[in-house]
Amino acid sequence: MKSNTAELICPAGTPAALRTAVDAGADAVYCGFQNATNARNFPGLNFTPEEMEKSVAYAHQKGAKVLLAINTFPPAGKFDLWKQAVVAGAKMNVDAYIVADVGVADFVANNYPEKRLHLSVQAAASSPEAIRYYCESFGVKRVVLPRILTVPEIRNIAGEIPCEIETFIFGNHGLMVEGRCSLTNYITGLSTNMDGVCSPAAEVKYERDEAGNMSTRLGPYLIDCYSCDETAGYPTICKGRYKVAHRDEGFYAFEEPITLNLSRMLPELMEAGVNAFKIEGRQRSKAYVRRVVSAFRQAVDDVRDGNEPEFADLLALTEGQKQTEGAFKSKTWR
Amino acid sequence: MKLTMGPIPFHWNNETRVDFYARLADESPVDTIYMGEVICSKREPFFRPLQEEVVARLERGGKTVVMSSLTEVMLKRERKMMSEICDISAREIEINNSSGLTQISGKKHRIGPMMNVYNEATMGYLAGQGATHFSLPVELPATSTRLLAQAAGELGVGVEVQVFGRASVAISARCYHARAHNRIKDNCLFVCEKDPDGMALKTLDDKDFLTINGIQTLSHSYVNLLAEIDDLAQMGVTHCRLLPHSQDMIVVANVFRGVMDGKLDVEEGQHRLKELDIPAPFSNGFWYGKAGHLNIDLSMT
């Protein structure tokens, strides 16, 4: 499914961000309801049913699609909440569901066979066989690939699956296999898979000592400690500094705080068969969404028109002003 | 309830593995043993030449052996390993990655703990495709386990809960053992072999935190649901899983078997587990829907 263009899929954490993304040129936005049914269940984010209805109308009026993320794993006893989200999405005429749980996928396929199903990155489908399983079982039309594959590996997958491919191109650099991470639950009692929560703000503490060093904690655990000349980051477990017996100093045992930025690889990714580019960041501000979406809109259009894409400086928007092409560039990342 | 030994998650050398399985065959009250490399495809060739003989010995000892698949399947060799597991017909197989589900085509199989079976709808769907047994995610609380055990009873399938050993709390494509030694996965030189229970990760203020095992991150604490065994039995859980560690697993197995059979009281069992000098606290927080690292003592409340 090679193409010389790709859809631009943009984050919408709030109705205002949705309008901003649509106005800045998003082909589609992804968003979720204000509950555990989506993987960004943070206070102050996401949509009430009324907001969703109005937002879908706004997006459709401007020619953009709305992809509803229902991409967590309902624990037994709570499945109805996920069903309600699917039913509400259908009534509001969303363009597709992004799902991860087999039971939720089956519910959509049985009750709304006409709706597009996208396989969330939370399903961790990283091989042609895994992706084909979801396509054959539930009619999945697009897979969001985990951020762990190189471009040649993506090209190989594209040749072996019957659905479209969406990849992340900008934003948080997810390290753990999504949908298989219980780090937050181990520390806080809130589960990423079941509650849609990663490093909940209510458990976060920033403490400055007399020397000016800033400690960041999640629950009872120290995640990082920054000297005066460093910028303190949000304490996400997989971005913290820790110690092991054979090293003298603490180090980023998993990954440093860094932003994935594949802007220079867009032509290569399109050539490899990627049909949609996803910008991460439903928790980000309107201003951020506007700048990132505008820059990538221009770039995708440039590639389509055969021009060399140019970028407004996205570096200023990256985490700690550090960026990476991660696993996409080279398998030495692993 | 039956007692099972999960697959060895760590990179133990062949001698250790052979001894471990020999003792399981001869001395342990374990019913079912899961065999196979589930974490890193690079480790798999080491034990492969010995595996068939070890399996045969376990089966002569009256044990059921189930072949477990990899958890992460991405590279060509990993895809090949999964196809090979799915081709096995002499024994039961446990699928730990959805790439296996396209390849079992109606054949009976077990669903491993990494497969995210959180609800009855998912369990029912997979049972309809031939799954006969479900190991539940380690983070699933008792409230949901009860409902899934009930559903499993109605479907006539087995349901298994990890009752001992470190909890798997994350999987990545990156090898953190290699990274900690300034290497990458492709030139790791198998540094993970030095850490039979994983590599301890401490916070900057020296608090025990997590455990690294190649691409896997485990808890520091050892899950211990000995005090909850009666609850598990009552709610219809059919199998209790122990995760292999370097401590004396025969003692662990005997303690759990003893409590399951009502021949050993929980307090005495806990005492025997403590005598193993496990270098980490016990935890059961996930079971109670709390932070996983916590150890909730209901007798204190």
Q: How many strands, which pairing sense, and closed or not: the largest β-sheet of chain A? A: 8 strands, parallel, barrel
CA radius of gyration of chain B = 18 Å
User: What's the CATH topology name of the largest domain in chain A?
Assistant: TIM Barrel
Tell me the number of structural domains of chain B: 1
Radius of gyration of chain A: 20 Å
CATH class of chain B: Alpha Beta
Overall pLDDT of chain B, averaged? 97
Low-pLDDT stretches of chain A are: none
Series of H and E elements of chain B: EHEHEHEEHEHEHEEEHEHHE
Order of helices and strands of chain A: EHEHEHEHEHEHEHHEEEEEEHEHEH
Count of DSSP H/I helices of chain A? 11
Structural class, from helix and strand content of chain B? Answer: alpha/beta
What's the domain count of chain A? Answer: 2
Largest sheet, spatial ordering of strands of chain A: 1-2-3-4-5-6-7-14
**N-end to C-end Cα span of chain A:** 28 Å
Amount of helix of chain A: 25-40%
- Per the CATH scheme, the topology name of chain B is TIM Barrel
Task: Please give the count of helices of chain B.
Answer: 9
Which pair of chains forms the biggest interface, and how many residues does each contribute? A-B, 72 and 75 residues
